[in-house]
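Known limitations

Files may contain more than one protein. Parsers should not assume a single record per file. Below, a two-record file is shown to illustrate correct handling: read the sequence, read the token line, then continue until end of file.
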Amino acid sequence: MGLPWNDPWVAENAEIHVREIMESKQSYGLEYVMDDKVVGFLLGTSMLFHAGRTFEINDLAVDPEYQGRGIAKKLLARCQEEMKEGGMAGLNLITEAEGFLPEFYERHGFKKENRVILMELEL
């Protein structure tokens, strides 16, 4: 994929990643089809927390040849609509701290969470 979704996936690992998400009982996915091919997708899972069931967007990507056409916006809007109808308490996601992505998500109602931080332990 190209910017801003340029994660360096190896095809085999990407297939495993998607399969693992979709095998979850709480998985959810959307695809955007254009010209008889999938050009965008959104994948995630939900989990019950003390404040209610929350959906986490694991992946939102658009083929570089189709970026700039509002596809990510449409996928995100549809997801928000369906999660609200399904009674979700909220939506979460992890994204890069710099660049285009924080601005994109903020335009669609997401806010930086200041009460929690992502912590990592490299093994």
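...continuing to the second record:
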Amino acid sequence: MDKITFVKRVAIWVAVVAALAIAVIGLCFGRVIEGSLAAEIGKWVLMGLVVIGILEGFVYFLGPLIWHFTYGKRK
């Protein structure tokens, strides 16, 4: 597996797992603090996108390093 494919797969899986974790946390522990339910859902979606964006930044910088230690040494 080449480096770009590995980083893309890791990025997709990190985004999916983070979105599921945020949804579960929001459903289990979320409270309606905003004025309407639509505003509360919008807040959770925006927060989820920000968290996923931060995690994807880490994947972008750490993904090639992880690839090097897993697949890079085999070549």
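Parsers that stop after the first record will miss the second one. For reference, the second record is described as follows. Residues 16 and 52 are 9 Å apart (CA to CA).
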